[in-house]
Amino acid sequence: MAIITEEQDQPQRPNQSHSETRPPKVQKPISPPSSKSSTPNPFTFWFYFTLLVSLTTLFLISLSYLAPRQDPKSWFLSLPHNLRQHFSEGRIVKVQTSPNQAPIEVFTTEHGPVGAENVLLVHGLGLSSYSFRKVLSMLASKGIHVVAVDLPGNGFSEKSVVEVVEGGNGVFGRLLDVYDEIQEKGLFWAFDRMIETGQIPYEEIGNRVSKRKVVRPIELSPGDIARVLGQVVETMGLAPVHLVLHDSGLGYSANWVSENPALLRSVTLVDTDSKAIGALPLWVLEVPVIREVVLGFSFAYAQLINICCSRGIAVLDAEAHRVLLRGRNGRQAVVGMGTKLNKSFDLAEWGGSDGLKDIPMQVLWSGGWSKEWSEEGRRVADALPLAVFVTHSGGRWPQEDAADKLAESIVQFVSSLPKSIRIVEEEQIPEHIQKMFDEAKSTDHHHHHHHGHGGQEHHDSHAHVHGADAGYMEAYGLGNGW
Ligand SMILES: *[C@@H]1O[C@H](CO)[C@@H](O)[C@H](O)[C@H]1NC(C)=O
Q1: In Å, what is the CA distance from 252 to each residue of 53, 93, 339, 344?
Q2: pLDDT of the residue at 449
Q3: Do 152 and 243 lie in a common domain?
Q4: Are residues 183 and 311 in the same domain?
Q5: Which atom number of ligand 1 is nearest to the Cα of residue 254?
Q6: Which atom of ligand 1 lies at the shortest distance from residue 255's CA?
Q7: Looking at residue 52, what is its pLDDT?
Q8: Which residues are listed as membrane-spanning (predicted)?
């Protein structure tokens, strides 16, 4: 890297004869010359670019093609059977995290008798409602009404929004932008352009990198997630709810929990570390090359999961998590969400706050994962002195390898509490909205073929009815018969 800095500091070295042949138009600034790195300097830029292309060619020649940008429909059709099955049992709920943004489609799956005790399961980092598939059916068979949600950016929920963005700041930010650009357009795009036009497409890249309309991953903060959970609970009529938070599901949901104790019947924490950051190491999904390898190859991902999260996970299920995580920009969304977690979260302060100290709590913890993990469990138990503490034999993703014990503990805890009194009655859908919903339904099957191409455009053809399960199959451009 020292060499790179030197090149940049002395851009006008006399032996760079090609600078004379440079077309004059490259003088045009691409971005305000506020910092050293944003001063336009084609040579430096192309030096980086060549370096990057060489490295990419060496290490990644096939990897950039391992993460193809598929349209949602072909992505969906490529899914393994277990994921399609899971999807077909779910329903899309639309939520609004801010008033001037299009609603976000949130995938939920609901099992068990309506009207019984309500349990809401929230997954941790890198997971989705799919991880709860066994717990869902076990709880339902014990007469519990249970819902699992894919937080936006995860699983089958929406993962991206369209935005106009500025390019990254600094040398590293620009490098990352160019790297993304290569991933998006393919390794040989720049060379093709050079052959076509006889010129280096410097300006084209410069413009695109400094300002471009992109499909951005949804990167929700705990504040946004609070709004998502609030609307899911309201729409599905789940209050008062027994909340089950796994892993960083605690970090994601902590704000909503603190703000809404009145909607809670109990809280169960499942292997949630005291910082609520999660078992899957975020940097693995962040660092270029590593992230491509881990998400690009089943065995690499399965290896990682074995080390960090679960030793007993079935190969097919690890593969399902990998497919969901990398599909449709999922990785970026998950990383964005992970970096927005509250770094100064304090479990004792959270659990002891005025609103929460009277909410029944239970902690489910792995007894045999590692010595460090058992110690962490003791810290968590100390931070929540009133919580019931139960150990299980699974790993840090126990819904994968100790689902029966998990379900049993949840059932026991829920039934040990006095029966809930429903505080929110399900509202009638207002007539005009019902009408919109019916119209949307009757027009939907006339234009299936529009969906699945535009990515975000399909909103326009749906009625924005909260909670109406209007055509969830159309979410991927699949009306019927897939
Ligand atoms: C982060 O956590 C701390 C400690 O639990 C809390 O006081 C603070 O309000 C949280 N910050 C945000 C932005 O939620």
Answers
A1: 37, 19, 11, 13
A2: 44
A3: yes
A4: no
A5: 14
A6: 14
A7: 80
A8: 45-67
Q: Which has more confidence, 193 or 84?
A: 84
| pLDDT value of position 437 | 59
Atom of ligand 1 nearest to the CA of 221: 13
Percent of the chain with pLDDT over 90: 53
The rounded mean pLDDT for the chain is 79
Give the structural domain span for 224: 72-159+220-416
Same domain, residue pair 317 and 285: yes
For the segment 256-315, what is each residue's pLDDT rounded down to a tens digit? 999 999 999 999 999 999 888 899 999 999 998 999 999 999 999 999 999 999 999 999
Q: Are 336 and 209 in a shared domain? A: no
Q: Is there a single domain that holds both residue 212 and residue 225?
A: no
Same-domain pairing of 370 and 279? yes
pTM above the 0.90 mark? no
What does the block give as tokens for 81? Answer: 């059977």
Asked if 282 and 410 sit in the same domain, the reply is yes
Residue nearest to atom 1 of ligand 1 (CA): 345
| pLDDT for the residue numbered 173 | 65
349 lines ligand 1 (CB under 6 A): yes
pLDDT band at 329 (very low <50, low <70, confident <90, very high): confident
The 8 Å CB, 24+ separation contacts for 369-377 are 369/395, 369/396, 373/271, 376/273, 376/274
Distant-in-sequence, close-in-space partners of 80: CB < 8 Å, separation ≥ 6: 316, 319, 320, 323
Q: Is the CB of 255 under 6 A from ligand 1?
A: yes
Cα(346) to centroid(ligand 1), Å: 7
Judge whether 479 lies within some domain: no
Q: Is 231 in the pocket of ligand 1 (CB under 6 A)?
A: no
Using a 6 Å cutoff on CB, does residue 350 contact ligand 1?
yes
276 or 184, which is more confident? 276
Q: For residues 453-481, give the mean pLDDT.
A: 42
In a shared domain, residues 173 and 254: no
